[in-house]
Design brief:
InterPro entries: AB_hydrolase_fold (IPR029058), CocE/Ser_esterase (IPR005674), Galactose-bd-like_sf (IPR008979), Xaa-Pro-like_dom (IPR000383), Xaa-Pro_dipept_C (IPR013736). There is one protein chain. The protein is α/β, with parallel strands linked by helices and 726 residues long. It folds into 2 domains: 52-228 and 326-430, Alpha/Beta hydrolase fold, catalytic domain (Rossmann fold, 3-Layer(aba) Sandwich), CATH 3.40.50.1820; 481-725, Galactose-binding domain-like (Jelly Rolls, Sandwich), CATH 2.60.120. The chain has 22 helices and 20 strands. The longest helix is centred in the N-terminal third of the chain and has 22 residues, at 51-72. It is globular, with a radius of gyration of 26 Å. Mean pLDDT is 79; it is low at 1-33, 262-267, 442-466, 496-502 and 720-726.
Length: 726
């Protein structure tokens, strides 16, 4: 294990045997004993069950999952167990490795050739069985495949190493089948979405070999450059001292390490896979896991979270321009998709792309970036081939209903030329807060009700009884207009910028603001960093919309809030926060979170604040050149579509970081991967020049929504404000 120079963060190493693990739990964490005992008992029970019975039970669980999905889609009566064939196949790679593949084959043989849908995943192919069943009911052949080295496939698993070559062999196998019409579509979730891009890239490079034209790509909560998108907070990746997506890096490393033993007797059942993954996320909620995430330097944190097993992903911290990572960036294939490139000089339907994610997903920004990249290369001739769908989901959320409907719509249009019954604009986004609905952590009983009664499903774009979906021709929407809210005394955003203008602030005027104490200050302590509360986290429980009151009460958080709104304001696009700031340290981060304060109170009479989007930006002084504070820092708070109802208030939270969502700023400006020394810092946020930029799409402007003729009118608005949320 890598040594840690900080004695505060020394970790006690535990031997790998089960007995010693249980002894360690008894001695150090009695509260965590029960789930460990349950884990141990289940392992023993699974060991006693014969392999064939385990596979049979796993298949039954998958069928039950498919039945539930059909209920959610309102198609419960159309689920037919024997309307398709399930054939287990083994597809050989170039080097002779066997890829375990489940082939879902329509049982009716009409003599015609059919397209094929490919789902390649490192997370056990039967996890996507329900999706495959729905697609095979639509008349498609479906291949569910474990990638190399995972679960029942042979070989060794290396992150994003063999995906393109193995996709090539899968496409070649499809091209050799009698039922194939030489067209295919690819779809996948998370890392499976990245394998979709590798399959599309492989189809472009090796088309003459297999002759299969991939006409539709549906990446869900994913990215075409997933290694860098999952590592850096800044998608531009051009900064010298990047901020790391710490939570995603450490948790994914731990998760793949725990689930990375596909040859074990437990690795071939979906029930065991789900339970093991849940136990890992339970472990990540313990105090010991927080200590591991505090480890320095960051370049060796993989050895801490994965028990001395190095991850090649961590090499990106020290050498982001290495050829290993450049070869795994498939932005070039996204550009060709946008251009409508058809390999082999063929004519016909140009390739389609359906980009699906959620505002609170870890890959939300990269999904939008991929869509914008494809749309920019379409040169205004996308013809409805490119669509973007953004819900209010996080990475482990219940987005399957909308995602599957959008996927089928894209496949039918690209592979069969079928036009949707109801024409829609290319961009479909969910407006958070519309009609007063906020998707907080749903209890299990609500999930159960939605399964028992599919009419309660709220996640259809055509169903606006609970949600409100908005449709635009592009993203950001052309209909949006930029409006500003400025910072002022009393932590209230009272004034607005009437028009776009570039203020000229000189060093003299900024020093005057500091000397006049026209600023707010807070202390950033990397030893006790500001905690993450909701947002774009990688986790089952911590991500998504959360109540933010705990953050507003902290001393290291600055809060700016507007008065209650007189009119409903809706925003759609990119939110920015621009600030003039100074620090006692050489380097500082500004973390900004846009929130909404509801007009109603909680049961305890406390105000309710929900997060909408967040962003972070780092600035490190160039001491050698004589650079000094204060500096203008522009934070991309994030893309969002949200509604602020009458009586609600707009709120922005500022802090020096968000841990463990992002890596800490240690204050000295040392390189992030290797830095170990840290210091507390006092940050100052000047009122002058600091402003919040909002992309307003509603008829009323911010100035109209904030203006009140008198205090009595404002009080009346506040008293009546709850009606807009009912």
């Amino acid at each position: 294990m890598a040594s840690n120079t900080n004695p505060r963060h020394q970790l006690k190493r535990v031997n790998s045997t089960t007995v010693e693990k249980l002894e360690h739990v008894l001695a150090s964490r009695p509260a965590a004993l029960i789930p460990r005992i349950v884990n141990f008992i289940l392992r023993m029970l699974l060991w006693l069950i014969p392999r064939r019975i385990r596979e049979y039970l796993s298949h039954l669980l998958s069928i039950l999952q498919a039945k539930i999905l059909f209920q959610r889609l309102g198609l419960g009566q159309k689920f037919r167990l024997f309307s398709y064939k399930t054939i287990e196949r083994e597809i050989l790679t170039i080097d002779g490795v066997s890829l375990k593949t489940t082939h879902l084959h329509p049982s009716t043989d009409d003599g015609r050739k059919h397209p094929c849908i490919i789902l390649r995943t490192p997370y056990y192919r039967y996890f996507d069985y329900a999706i495959g069943v729905h697609l095979v009911h639509k008349g498609y052949h479906v291949l569910l495949q474990d990638v190399r080295g995972r679960f029942e496939s042979g070989g060794e698993f290396t992150l994003a190493e063999y995906e393109k070559a193995d996709s090539r062999c899968t496409l070649k196998w499809i091209g050799e089948q009698e039922w194939s019409d030489k067209t295919a579509g690819v779809v996948g979730l998370s890392m499976g979405g990245y394998t979709s891009w590798t399959a599309y890239a492989s189809s472009l490079e090796t088309f003459e070999e297999h002759g299969v034209h991939v006409k539709c790509v549906v990446p869900i909560i994913s990215s075409c450059d997933i290694l860098k998108a999952g590592t850096y907070a800044d998608l531009s990746r051009k900064v010298d001292d990047p901020i790391m997506n710490l939570s995603l890096m450490t948790r994914y490393t731990r998760l793949t390490h725990i689930l990375g033993s596909p040859k074990t007797v437990f690795g071939s059942t979906i029930g065991w896979f789900v339970f093991r993954m849940a136990s890992v996320f339970h472990e990540m909620r313990q105090k010991e896991w927080r200590k591991k995430q505090m480890h320095l330097p960051l370049k060796s944190i993989d050895l801490i979270v994965a028990q001395d097993v190095p991850s090649p992903r961590m090499d990106i911290l020290t050498d982001p321009d290495d050829s290993f990572f450049k070869e795994r960036d498939h932005s070039w294939s996204v550009k060709l998709l946008g251009q409508g490139f058809i390999p082999g000089g063929q004519s016909g339907v140009r390739p389609h792309g359906c980009f699906i994610s959620g505002w609170y997903d870890i890959f939300s920004r990269s999904t939008i970036r991929d869509f914008q990249l494809a749309a920019a290369n379409a040169a205004g001739q996308a013809d409805g081939r490119l669509t973007l769908v953004m819900g209010d989901w996080q990475h482990f959320d219940d987005f399957i209903t909308v995602s599957l409907r959008e996927s089928v719509r894209a496949f039918d249009k690209a592979l069969r030329g079928q036009q949707p019954d109801k024409p829609m604009l290319p961009v479909r986004v969910l407006c958070v807060g519309a009609k007063g609905y906020f998707r907080t952590q749903r209890p299990l009983w609500e999930h159960a009700l939605s399964v028992i009664n599919p009419s309660t499903s709220k996640y259809s774009i055509s169903n606006e009884s609970h949600h409100a979906w908005r449709q635009f021709s592009s993203w950001p929407p052309k209909e949006s207009r930029t409006e500003w809210l400025s910072m002022t005394a009393g932590n209230m955003m009272l004034s607005t910028f009437a028009e776009s203008k570039e203020e000229n602030f000189t060093d003299h005027s900024l020093r005057f603001e500091l000397e006049s104490h026209h600023y707010d200050s807070f202390v950033w302590d990397p030893f006790n960093p500001t905690p993450t509360l909701g947002g774009r986290m990688f986790g089952l429980f911590e991500a998504g919309i959360k109540e933010q009151r705990k953050l507003t009460l902290r001393d290291d958080v600055v809060v700016y809030t507007t008065p209650p709104l007189k009119r409903t304001v809706e925003i759609a696009g990119d939110v920015y926060f621009e600030v003039f700031a100074s620090s006692s340290a050489v380097s500082m981060d500004i973390f900004a979170k846009l929130c909404i304060v509801l007009p109603e109170k909680s049961a305890l009479g406390k105000e309710i604040t929900y997060n909408l989007c967040e962003g972070i930006k780092r600035h490190t002084l160039n001491v050698e050149s004589g650079e000094h504070w204060p500096k203008r820092i522009r934070v991309h708070v994030g893309p969002i579509c949200a509604q602020f109802g009458i009586g609600s208030r707009i709120r922005i939270l500022l802090s020096g970081g968000s841990f463990p969502q992002y890596s800490r700023n240690l204050g000295y400006g040392d390189p992030t991967p290797t830095s170990t020394r840290m210091t507390t810092a006092k940050h100052r946020v000047l009122w002058s020049g600091s402003k919040l930029e909002l992309p307003v799409t509603s008829a009323y402007s911010l100035e109209e929504a904030l203006s009140c003729d008198n205090q009595e009118e404002a009080d009346e608005i506040w008293a009546q404000s709850g009606k807009s949320f009912k």
